[in-house]
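Model it.
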Amino acid sequence: MEEINKLVKVLKKQLYLYEVLSKLCKREEKAIIEGDLKKLEEVVEEEEKIFTQMKIWEKLRMNIVKIMKDKLSLPQNVTFSSLIVEMKEKNLPYFHVESLRKKIISKIAEINRINRRNISLLEYSIKIINEYFHRLTGTKSTPTYNLKGKAHIQEQTRKLLNKIS
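Modeled.
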């Protein structure tokens, strides 16, 4: 079945794109740690280009899988994993497809870990910036409740310009 060879080529390209994305996520992490906003912006732009390519290749993969399901007389709601099982049962060459699928899943998990770490770094950076801003401007937040019993944060502020003059 020629679709299997096409599917393997598409999966190889997808794996390559996930590897590139993983490297970009690591560069993004480094830019966050270094506080290099220009480098961070460049990395995000490169990631967007990769996402555009990924969409194209994913559509192609889905089209090939649809054709394979039709040829194997499988319902369209059959998962990709189930398709691989069907290929195995019908003695079709499934090994490369299964191997690439596992590598892609592993790479996606790695990207998720890096992204969670990047989110934590960004949240921490924002928290530090807010704390420095509050110290610099002399703001103090005090939670109070309004008449409806909802929490409301009142800020007692002293403007930075007042401190300077």
